[in-house]
Amino acid sequence: MKSYLAAAIQMTSVSNVHKNLVQAEELIDLAVRRGAELVGLPENFSFMGEEKDKLAQAEEIYRESAQFLKKMAQRYQVTILGGSFPVPVENTGKVYNTTILIDPSGEELTRYCKVHLFDVNVPDGNTYRESSTVVAGKELPTVYLSEQLGNIGLSVCYDVRFPELYRHLSDKGADVMFVPAAFTAFTGKDHWQVLLQARAIENTAYVIAPAQTGNNYDRRHTHGHAMIIDPWGVILADAGEQPGIAIAEIKPSRLEQVRRQMPSLEHRVF
Ligand SMILES: O=C(O)CNC(=O)[C@H](CS)NC(=O)CCC(=O)C(=O)O
Predict the structure, then answer these.
(1) What is the secondary structure of 75-128 as a DSSP string?
(2) How many angstroms is it from 148 CA to the middle of ligand 1?
């Protein structure tokens, strides 16, 4: 593993795929011009809108998202995490909320379908029933072993509340954990940063968390604060509330140092 720059993209995706892909490319371009070699997009980067509209356009969103990610990786010669997008599931009328990792040649390295679905009545009055349009993934995420970039573990958004998933990633050797998200503004203000820091500290791993921000549609407001956190829990970069990027260096020497200073992974009893 080498030292390199990673970027977490923060955007306000809306219910127009073309607009979202234009915004995403501008931010990928910015990240690459600043030197990023690993770039993550947020959950639902290519479409944020009413659930029924997402389902009606699912085939098209899927096709365009997959094509876009491949093109971006090749054009900018970077490894890209395609935060998440809907992948239609046969005979269900529903989709998997899927994230994929793509290398600079455009090859898919690994994919993961979100296993924890956000079926929550948020105290601000908004109700989320992700399971009404999404089929829960049935497999735990894999860790992609990259000689250059370190071992990369995947997850999506609401997963961040389930530490056992990250322990699994840690058991598989993860050095870097992605948490692409579209956190609600209401839960985000109290939970987002704390949860991300906890996942980084307890697994002594980097956390890269691309995010949705602002008013995506109707009453849907997302928290923003895409961030990169080091294995000690220090926030290296925070994109704030406007669309933009959080960029920081991922260093094997820091991983090694923190794991020496705080060898908690070696002291596990359970
Ligand atoms: O809503 C959409 O348009 C697209 N879907 C999402 O953004 C997903 C599933 S509803 N959101 C989350 O998982 C938020 C989790 C969260 O906010 C928390 O855990 O507090």
Answers:
(1) HHT-EEEEEEEEEEETTTTEEEEEEEEE-TTS-EEEEEE--S--EEE-TTS-EE
(2) 32
Q: What is the pTM of this model?
A: 0.98
Residue 212 contacts residue 44 (beta carbons within 8 Å): yes
**How many CB atoms are located within 10 Å of the residue 14 CB?**
17
Tokens 């793509």 map to which residue?
Answer: 102
End-to-end CA distance of the chain: 29
Q: What is the pLDDT of residues 115-127, one digit of tens each?
A: 999 999 999 999 9
Measured distance CA(257)–CA(244) in Å, rounded: 30
Q: Which residue has the tokens 């260096």?
A: 249
Backbone dihedral angles phi then psi of residue 188, each to the nearest 5 degrees:
-60, -40
Mean predicted confidence (pLDDT) in 36-56? 96
* CA-closest residue to ligand 1 atom 7: 182
Handedness of CA 209, 213, 217, 221 (dihedral sign): positive
